[in-house]
């Protein structure tokens, strides 16, 4: 699919009473899976959040004093942050091959008599 960068947000930390042990267990299991499908776990930000309470979404949460933040490796070195918003902001925009010809995904092809074949798609 062309997905090169990942963020893992571990939600519902409030249901485990913001448990550091549970978060570390999830990070370990998820890292193993991420490695199997071809990603480097060191290049992935793991963020414990609670969407219901808003913990670690936009601001650092006082409910998880054990959480020191995430670090991920990128081409230019290492990037650090504490919240999900920081992780989203740390995503590097993909390089677009603007010097190459336009590729258009086709939705349909119509054969119109007297005109010819008309490909239809969206830009």
TrEMBL record:
Superkingdom, according to UniProt?
Answer: Eukaryota
Q: Identify the InterPro entries for this entry.
A: P-loop_NTPase, T_Tr_GTP-bd_dom, TRAFAC_GTPase_members
Q: What Gene Ontology molecular-function terms does this entry list?
A: GTP binding; GTPase activity; translation elongation factor activity
Keyword annotations for this protein, in alphabetical order, are: Elongation factor, GTP-binding, Nucleotide-binding, Protein biosynthesis
Record has Nucleotide-binding as a keyword: yes
Keyword GTP-binding among UniProt keywords? yes
All copies of domain Tr-type G, residue ranges: 3-93
Please name the PANTHER family in this protein's record.
TRANSLATION FACTOR
> What name does this protein carry?
Translation elongation factor 1-alpha
